[in-house]
Specification:
The structure holds two protein chains of two kinds. Chain A is mainly beta. Chain A has no helices and eleven strands. In chain A, strands 2, 4, 5, 6, 9, 10 and 11 form a seven-stranded mixed beta sheet that branches. In chain A, strands 1-3-8-7 form a four-stranded antiparallel beta sheet, with no helix packed on it. Classes of the chains: A mainly beta, B mainly beta.
C-alpha cells in the first residue's frame, strides 16, 4: 500500500507570494490533516478535512486555507507569504474515525525569502 | 486546550545505555501516540496506547500509559545509534476530529 505522498518536497518562495501544497492520502483514507512544524513551535495543527468538508481548524490566520477533493486528495494554500511561514508542512491521513492513528507524509519544506 | 509537556528536551547518550522519555499533561486523553521523526521526514507512528495502565513493548522500546490516562513514558533499553531521532508524543481527546496535540519532542542522540 502506498504511503501518504506530498508534493513538492521543497519550495522556495518570495515574501508576498502565494503557494499551494498537495497531499495524496493512503488509499481508502478519507481524512486528511495538515500540520506546520517549526523548531520554535513544534508541530501545530492547521486543519482537517473529511469527505471534502473541513471538520476542524487550528489557530492560524485566514491566509492559510485548504480543500479536499472527491478522491480525498487535499491541497493547502498560503497566501501573502511571510518570512515566518517558513516551515515543514506535514499532512497526515487516516480513516476518519475519532482518535484514530495518523500516517504522515514526508512533508514539504517551504522557505520564504 | 490540551498541553503536553515532554521531558527531557534533549538526550545525548552512549550506545548501550538505557533512557526514559516522559509525556505529561493535566488533561485526560482518550488515546496517546508516540512517533519517531528523522530529519527532513514525517513522523512515523510507533505505538498507540488507549487503556490506563497499559504497557506495550516494541523490541527494545517499552511504552506505558498512566493509570489516570494523563501521562505516558517511553523507555529504550540498550540504545543504539539507529535510535537517534526526534521522539514525539501526541494525544487526541474531547471531540476534536483529526487533531493531534503534540509535545515539543525529545531529541535523542545515541553515540557509537
Amino acid at each position: 500500500k502506498a504511503g501518504v505522498t506530498q508534493t513538492p518536497r521543497y519550495l522556495i518562495k518570495t515574501r508576498g507570494q502565494q503557494v499551494t501544497l498537495s497531499c495524496s492520502p493512503i488509499s481508502g483514507h478519507r481524512s486528511v490533516s495538515w500540520y506546520q512544524q517549526t523548531p520554535g513551535q513544534g508541530l501545530q495543527f492547521l486543519f482537517e478535512y473529511f469527505s471534502e468538508t473541513q471538520r476542524n481548524k487550528g489557530n492560524f490566520p485566514g491566509r492559510f486555507s485548504g480543500r479536499q477533493f472527491s478522491n480525498s486528495r487535499s491541497e493547502m494554500n498560503v497566501s501573502t507569504l511571510e518570512l515566518g511561514d517558513s516551515a515543514l508542512y506535514l499532512c497526515a491521513s487516516n480513516y476518519g474515525g475519532f482518535g484514530t492513528e495518523a500516517f504522515f507524509g514526508q512533508g514539504t519544506r517551504l522557505t520564504v525569502v | 486546550t490540551q498541553l503536553l509537556e515532554q521531558s527531557p528536551q534533549f538526550l545525548s547518550i552512549q550506545e548501550g545505555e538505557n533512557l526514559t522519555v516522559y509525556c505529561n499533561s493535566s488533561s485526560v486523553f482518550s488515546s496517546l501516540q508516540w512517533y519517531r521523526q528523522e530529519p527532513g521526514e514525517g513522523p512515523v507512528l510507533l505505538v498507540t496506547v488507549v487503556t490506563g495502565g497499559e504497557v506495550k513493548k516494541l523490541k527494545r522500546l517499552t511504552f506505558q500509559f498512566g493509570d489516570a490516562r494523563k501521562d505516558s513514558s517511553l523507555h529504550i533499553t540498550a540504545a543504539q545509534p539507529g535510535d537517534t531521532g526526534l521522539y514525539l508524543c501526541a494525544a487526541s481527546g474531547g471531540t476534536s476530529y483529526g487533531k493531534l496535540t503534540f509535545g515539543q519532542g525529545t531529541i535523542l542522540t545515541v553515540h557509537p
